[in-house]
TrEMBL record:
Residues 316-695 form the Glycoside hydrolase family 65 central catalytic domain. This is Glycoside hydrolase family 65 protein. Substrate binds at residues 351-352, 607-608. Residues 704-764 form the Glycoside hydrolase family 65 C-terminal domain.
Length: 781
């Protein structure tokens, strides 16, 4: 991959590859994927290649391909494929290709590809492709292709249309619906998901010219789930064949289609396509670029001045993917662990959203954060179902969520165990329970940062109370300890299954219950309608009695003599092995070539940040020395096999004062998707890691945190950064910050007073605050 191809206006905006590589197909498809949160389109080339994955996903359109399967996002029709023939020979960029460049421009969210191709008979053509998925009209995909003959008498044939002969790795999700062509040019394909009965409507239109003249009446090929139109002609040297293709994607889940019949939806979708056709690629593209400028680059205003161009590019790459992965338009949908860029994790939402991605939205776009939390509110239905079926009270959030009403959607069987030869049971859906407290924590964070009381009244309190009710019923009394324990769980470190008292889980459950106690007391005192409604629905008076009886007796693992906190009851008693080989691995999961998951449970080896994430989010519960001791104990045993690990370690390293290490880990976190490892992103983007990149920059290097409802900044820029600019929303007001080596300048855009702590000192300002960092630091030290 190349990150330095952008020059002039495009500097630090281009993610590219500069030669065709069949090894990099999957990675390029995912990291250069296009989208707008409504849909996601993997950037497979127009002409097909062996090993490619051609995905188009529409957020929130879950379906079960079979009763035995979990809900997953179906791979919708393929609208980008083109069968291109030059003199009867199929175009194949893997041979006889020069000047190949495929580039994603992050600023304009446009994918471009160009190269020169020579046929086996020696004729040459120059090809250029462009593509975007509109952020202005979420239903629109625009494509352009231009072929110039560099030799005389070049016969060109291009077949393009809608191909619904697709699946999710073989799993079929659709009934074939009606196919039509209107006015010999508007192609329509309708399909319905088999179980969830969602109607998908694809419409497409082509505008083709040959040597400047319009080509009409293409040859039409129809097959099962397929309509293709083919355009043909012969070019003299220097002449061009141009094809513009506009496609719209709609489904019966679209809010605008509520209550409409299929016929009405089809008509509306078709009329949208016709309007798009009138604007053409360039017109639509201009509106799309404008939307990116306003909604993303101006809104988020993130800038890094660094000696290394990669840093700013990585930050922009994160903002780009945070935008395209997030269904900001519809609160009935969550963010998938792979976004809309691949089949991995089947489109399900994990704690990745609340702990890794949501902080970005809470601080940068609270409206979207609110929408994502409402998705969890709607998910109370599934969470209550899961609690009931496991014999608990309240709301037990699914480890993997799809439809809000589904409950648990994690699969039960996973990889084959190298030792037994049998499939490994996946326990996460049963016992990785910290997700329930993570959701409550996220609600609290959103509330404290935004002050959105209406959200709390309508949704937030209910989540906090019902999750606390779950924990109340989940705690187990331990006679020996004389305390309440949480036994048989998986903590964030998934290499330790069936452990008792995972520290992260216990502290977070405790935090969740403490919140419930606090808010119960406050609401009861207010004697408000909200209190009475919730008390009646959730029997809070009784729940409160149970919480009060437990809260001070919950076992919270404490540091030992060496200050190390046991990650769980048995971690520290397990054997220690030499992990050098796995710590130096170039790709993840190599440890499974030598050990089974069961064996890993008996070794002091961690998949990912566990205690570190606890130190990050509940920082004031632990001393600096405890954090250092635990970092030094656990990091060497952590092989970062999850993409969620590095960003947390980077933030912690910064908190603990090791700037160089922090930057090194930040860089590694960015390289999870942007690095040289060829296969890492095949199944899709690592969305939590992408959210983590933003967090390392703002929560790490700028040292921004909300602590006890107070805003804090402790900047610690990497040595080679001369400036960092970013914005946050704080209590409904936009703040714009600029940090240089010696200064912090922060502006309250609405001129509303703000309190801010910097290096331990309180400041209050309502316009522009300038702080000399060296002085401020000197005073503290
Ligand atoms: C990680 C989890 C994460 C999931 C989805 C797993 O490999 O261990 O923490 O939630 O991937 O990204």
């Amino acid at each position: 991959m190349k990150y330095d191809l952008g020059t002039g206006e495009e500097k630090n905006w281009i993610v590219a590859e500069s030669s065709f590589s069949s090894n990099l197909l999957g990675k390029a498809e995912a990291i250069m994927s296009l989208g707008n949160g409504y849909m996601g389109l993997r950037s497979a080339a127009e002409e097909p290649y062996v090993g490619e994955v051609r995905n188009l996903f529409v957020a929130g359109t879950f379906n079960k391909s079979d009763v035995m399967e979990v809900s997953e996002l179906p791979n919708a029709a393929d609208v980008t494929r083109m069968n291109i023939y030059i003199d009867g020979e199929r175009l194949d960029a893997s041979v006889r290709t020069e000047d190949y460049v495929r580039a994603l421009n992050l600023k304009t969210a446009e994918l471009r590809r160009s190269f020169i191709w020579t046929t086996s008979a020696g004729k040459q053509v120059a090809l250029k492709f462009r593509r975007f998925v509109s952020l202005d009209n979420l239903h629109v995909i625009g494509m352009q292709m231009e072929l110039e003959a560099l030799s005389d008498d070049v016969h060109v044939s291009v077949e393009s249309g809608v191909n619904a002969q697709v699946s999710n790795s073989g799993a079929q999700h659709f009934f074939e619906g009606e196919k039509r062509i209107y006015d010999k040019k508007y192609v329509e394909m309708v399909a319905r998901t088999k179980e969830s009965l969602i109607d998908f409507m694809f419409h497409t239109v082509h505008h083709v010219t040959l040597a400047g003249s319009k080509l009409n009446d293409p040859f039409m090929r129809m097959d099962r789930r397929l309509i293709m139109l083919s355009y043909k002609g012969t070019l003299a040297k220097g002449q061009k064949f141009s094809l513009e293709k506009l496609t719209t994607v709609h489904t019966s889940r679209d809010k605008a289609f509520d209550g409409l019949t299929l016929k009405e939806m089809r008509d509306r979708a078709l009329s949208t396509l016709k309007k798009c056709a009138a604007k053409g690629y360039e017109g639509l593209f201009a509106q799309h670029v404008q939307a990116w400028e306003q909604k993303v680059w101006k809104q988020y205003k993130l800038n890094i001045e660094s000696e290394d161009v990669f840093d700013l590019l990585a930050a922009r790459f994160a903002l780009y993917h945070l935008t395209i992965m997030t269904p900001a338009h519809d609160e009935r949908m969550g963010i998938a662990a792979k976004g809309l860029s691949g089949e991995g994790y089947q489109g399900h939402s994990f704690w990745d959203t609340e702990m890794f991605i949501l902080p970005f939205f809470i601080y940068s776009n609270p409206e979207v954060a609110r929408s994502l939390l409402i998705y969890r509110y709607l998910g109370l239905e599934g969470a209550r179902k899961k609690a009931r079926s496991n014999g608990y009270e309240g709301a037990m959030y699914p480890w993997e969520a799809a439809w809000p009403s589904d409950g648990e959607m994690a699969q039960e069987w996973g990889r084959v165990d190298i030792v037994t030869g049998k499939q490994t049971k996946i326990w996460t859906g049963f016992i990785e329970q910290h997700i329930t407290a993570d959701v409550a924590f996220a609600v609290w964070q959103y509330y404290k940062v935004t002050g959105d009381q209406a959200f709390m009244d309508d949704y937030g309190y209910e989540i906090i109370f019902d999750t606390a009710r779950f924990w109340g019923s989940r705690l187990e009394w331990d006679e020996d300890r004389g305390q309440y324990c949480i036994n048989d769980v998986i903590g964030p470190d998934e290499y330790k299954e069936h452990v008792d008292n995972n520290a992260f889980t216990n502290y977070f459950a405790h935090f969740n219950m403490q919140l419930a106690i606090k808010y119960y007391s406050r609401l009861k005192e207010s004697d408000s309608a909200v209190f009475h409604r919730l008390n009646e629905a959730l029997d809070l008076d009784q729940a409160m009695e149970a919480w009060m009886e437990c809260i001070d007796k919950i076992y919270l693992p404490q540091p030992g003599e060496d200050l190390v906190i046991p990650q769980d009851d048995t971690y520290l008693t397990k054997r220690i092995i030499d992990l050098t080989k796995y710590k130096n691995q170039t790709h993840v999961n190599t440890i499974f070539e030598d050990y089974s998951l069961e064996q890993l449970s008996d070794i002091q080896v961690s998949k990912q940040a566990d205690l570190m994430i606890l130190f990050y989010w509940l920082e004031d519960k632990f001393t600096h020395d405890v954090k250092i001791a635990n970092y030094n104990y656990y990091e060497p045993k952590t092989i970062h096999d999850s993409s969620l690990s590095l960003s947390t370690h980077a933030i912690l390293a910064n908190d603990l004062g090791d700037r160089q290490l922090a930057y090194r880990l930040f860089r590694q976190a960015c390289e999870i998707d942007l690095g040289p490892e060829m296969k890492s992103s095949d199944l899709g983007m690592h969305t939590a890691s992408i959210g983590g990149i933003w967090q390392v920059i703002v929560m790490g290097f700028a040292g921004m945190r909300m602590l006890h409802g107070e805003l804090r900044m402790d900047p610690k820029l990497p040595e080679h950064w001369s400036k960092l600019e970013f914005m946050i929303n704080w209590q409904g007001q936009r703040l714009e910050a600029e940090i240089t080596k010696d200064r912090l300048v922060i502006e309250a855009m609405d001129r509303v007073p703000v309190e801010l702590e910097v290096y331990g000192k309180e400041y209050r300002f309502n316009d522009v605050l300038t702080i000399n960092l060296a002085e401020a630091k000197g005073e503290r030290d």
